[in-house]
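User: structure tokens for this one?
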Amino acid sequence: MKLKILSIILISIVLLTACGQSADVSFNLEEQLSLGSKYLAEAKYEEAIVVFEKIIKVEDKCIEAYQGLAQAYIGIGNLVKAIETLEKGVNKTKDESLSDFWNTLSTSEAVLQKIAEYCNDKQYNKIFELMQEKDYNEILNLIQFIDKPLTLGEESKKIGIYRIFSKKFGEYMIYYGGFQEGKREGDGVWLGYYDKNNYIAIGQWKDDSPNGGMEVREWHLNLDESVVYRVITGGVSNGLWDGPVVWGFERTDGRIQSWNVSFTGGKWNILREEDDEEEGVYYITGEENPANGEDSGEMSIDSKEELDQLEGIVGFVN
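Assistant:
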């Protein structure tokens, strides 16, 4: 089944031709399928799961019920249960459309497993390459109508795709790391890629947000052409830089320049203001790190708008 068709399931009128008639006269198949489709359209996935499971229990060859149940599991981010549902449906019905859907989700599972392997091996550039491929983008097409992340893995460690809407790094980010009670917790890697822009954040998570020590390596088209990566290391509170931070750049000639800065809740802490007759007021925010090995001067911000912007981890700051 084409992905376009899969998405239409969420809002379309349910077809009944593939389902048989139940021997239970008190069970109205058409009404139950319509109710399940209504719950899908309203993103009430838990309710949809209950309805479609009830249908399958009564009529185990109803193709639409397997389709709907798989969509509902995707809606709550449970890829494994969606695959298991379709496998059962294919075995019961031998339906080609269910088989196509099953193959699509199985491919998605393999892609996520490969990303997890690359994360374990710290082969982040391979992940960025994979994120440009067709199979990965088919996953994004599959989940474009849901808000919850699509996850895979054990209860204590998972990989997931999260929707975040970043202008620089796209609509989706990948998380791989610790989980506890359904939330990101412990050590984690946070990755994004869009139109050559790439982002890696490695560090501590708590209560489903970056909290603790974090190192960010990012590159985007707005950076100077001499920059290989912007590297930011320090403490983060609920996704915002907080406390002492080292703000630096790796350059194409091998030099590393960095400045010691600090933040309070994502806001720059200003060391002092200076007024230049030609340039106007600018704000000194950082002292040169002696490790630079050269006089690169103090770090400054020359606009109030930039100074007022919150700084933090992509996906957790506007």
